[in-house]
Amino acid sequence: MVGLFERVVTHLTVIICFQSLVLDMAGNVGTQSLAVTIRVLMDEDVSPRQKLALVGKEALVGLMNGLLLGLLSFGAIGLYLMAAKGAAAAFAFSVSFCTGTALLVSMLLSSIIGTTVPILFKRLGVDPAVLRVIKQGVEEVTKSGTGRIASSFGVRVAGKTGTAQNSQGDDHAWFAGYAPVDNPRYAVVAIAEAGKAGSSLTGPMVGKMLSFLINGEKYAEPQKTEQKAAPKPQNVNRGAGR
């Protein structure tokens, strides 16, 4: 999705500074709506009308929060760009308007999705609480399981390794992961044809890509220090002269 706006980002790099603000707030709103909905769905007597009312209520809360924070962001970011960066008023408040609007829309959509997804799963006969168990499982994969190498590049990753049989040669390898674990913002999937094992090949690919997306810089491999061999003892001829 970020790649669709690569040209905009190239000419307007300052907007990337506020990307985390939008993503983090949207993630928090979605998580809170999800928790509230799961708690309500524990009551088996909740009618479809009450569920619809819950969606409307959470959407209204998300809209009001997004509107408030969007207005604050519009003013604060615009003034910051003018005072700290010396930007013109038109440019500064254009950027802050985009950020505030993105914050409003993302918080509204997150509240709606966080409410409707558990209701949909409940409708399909899937217990929403199962998602928490699945989440714990993929976290353990990169914590103490086969995919722990994916979390060794500066970002805590949750994901799953996998292989697909290949009748023409070595098995295909893949790894799907997301990060950060506590507040997911990015999901990356890597597939390597004839890669044999997902943990050793595609796991590092996903880990490095997520590290780049979150930290904003390419992961630097630690340089190996070459150990110098100890000098060999010199043979000293102590024989008596003849």
**What is the general shape?**
flat
- Helical content class: 40-55%
How far the N terminus sits from the C terminus, by CA atoms, comes to 87 Å
Number of extended strands: 3
Beta fraction of the residues? 5-15%
Unreliable spans: none
Biggest sheet: strands side by side, in what order? Answer: 1-2-3
Mean pLDDT: 82
Query: How would a crystallographer describe the biggest sheet?
Result: 3 strands, antiparallel
Give the helices and strands as they follow along the chain. HHHHHEEEH
**Class derived from helix and strand content:** mainly alpha
Number of helices: 6
Radius of gyration: 26 Å
In short:
The chain has 242 residues and is mainly alpha-helical.
Question: Overview of this structure, please?
Answer:
The structure is a single chain. This protein has 242 residues and is mostly helical. 53% of the residues lie in helices and 9% in strands. It has six helices and three strands; from the N terminus they run αααααβββα. It has a three-stranded antiparallel β-sheet with strand order 1-2-3. α2 runs parallel beside α4 (89-123) and α3 (48-84) packs antiparallel against α4. The longest helix has 37 residues, at 48-84. The mean pLDDT is 82.
